[in-house]
């Protein structure tokens, strides 16, 4: 009798756990389905999956985390450009283009930082106030993306082709892609709220 009870309880518990698991999407499933809506889904999943425990299945936390990833990449790019600008073998035009790019990245970093703070203001508001705060976030993230894309303008023309331009482009592309994804996830959150 005791063996039958143990088997019955084990089967019941297993069914309860699997049913609960099926009803509630996992954090990784939530991230994957959310990332399917952005321009760079593989990058989105790769950059946000390490934060699955924090994100869980919260669209607000997903947007916050995506902005934090963008901020971190912007900071890394800013550091990289500062170091590159000090390189002694640069042509004057390259140094100037890097300086301009650095200004754009610094502006972008500031806008993403403001967006993160503004998104926190959305937690306890509804209606028009929520829309106003979200509009600020969307505007700043969109402007940050424009800043990042503008960075490469100074590297136009054949004279600027080479390792420096390729290196800067790789950095800027990386940060612009995560910022684009963050903007898409912020927009999704705003629509669902």
Automatic annotation (TrEMBL):
Q: Which SMART domains match?
A: PMEI (SM00856)
Kindly indicate whether the keyword RNA-binding belongs to this entry: no
Recorded hits in InterPro entries, A to Z, give: Invertase/methylesterase_inhib (IPR035513), Pectinesterase_inhib_dom (IPR006501), PME_Inhibitor (IPR051955)
Q: Which residues, if any, are the signal sequence?
A: 1-22
Domain Pectinesterase inhibitor residue range list: 26-185
- Sorted alphabetically, which keywords does the UniProt record give? Signal
Query: Which Gene Ontology molecular-function terms are recorded?
Result: pectinesterase inhibitor activity
Q: Is Transmembrane helix among the key words of this record?
A: no
Domain of life the protein comes from: Eukaryota
Name this polypeptide is given: Pectinesterase inhibitor domain-containing protein
Taxonomic lineage of the native organism: Eukaryota, Viridiplantae, Streptophyta, Embryophyta, Tracheophyta
């Amino acid at each position: 009798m005791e063996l039958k009870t143990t088997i019955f309880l084990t089967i019941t518990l297993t069914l309860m756990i699997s049913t609960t698991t099926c009803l509630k999407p996992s954090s990784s499933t939530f991230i994957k389905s959310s990332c399917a809506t952005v321009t760079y889904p593989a990058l989105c999943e790769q950059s946000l999956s390490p934060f699955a425990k924090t994100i869980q299945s919260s669209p607000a936390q997903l947007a916050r985390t995506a902005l934090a990833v963008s901020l971190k990449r912007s900071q890394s790019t800013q550091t990289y450009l500062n170091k590159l600008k000090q390189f002694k073998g640069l042509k004057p035009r390259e140094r100037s283009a890097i300086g301009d790019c650095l200004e754009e990245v610094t502006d972008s970093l500031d806008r993403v930082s403001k967006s993160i703070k503004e998104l926190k203001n959305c937690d306890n508001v509804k209606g028009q106030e929520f829309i106003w705060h979200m509009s600020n976030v969307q505007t700043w993230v969109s402007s940050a993306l424009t800043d990042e894309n503008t960075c490469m303008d100074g590297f136009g023309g054949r004279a600027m082709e080479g390792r420096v331009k390729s290196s800067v482009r790789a950095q800027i592309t990386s940060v612009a892609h995560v910022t684009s994804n963050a903007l898409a996830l912020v927009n999704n959150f705003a629509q669902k709220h």
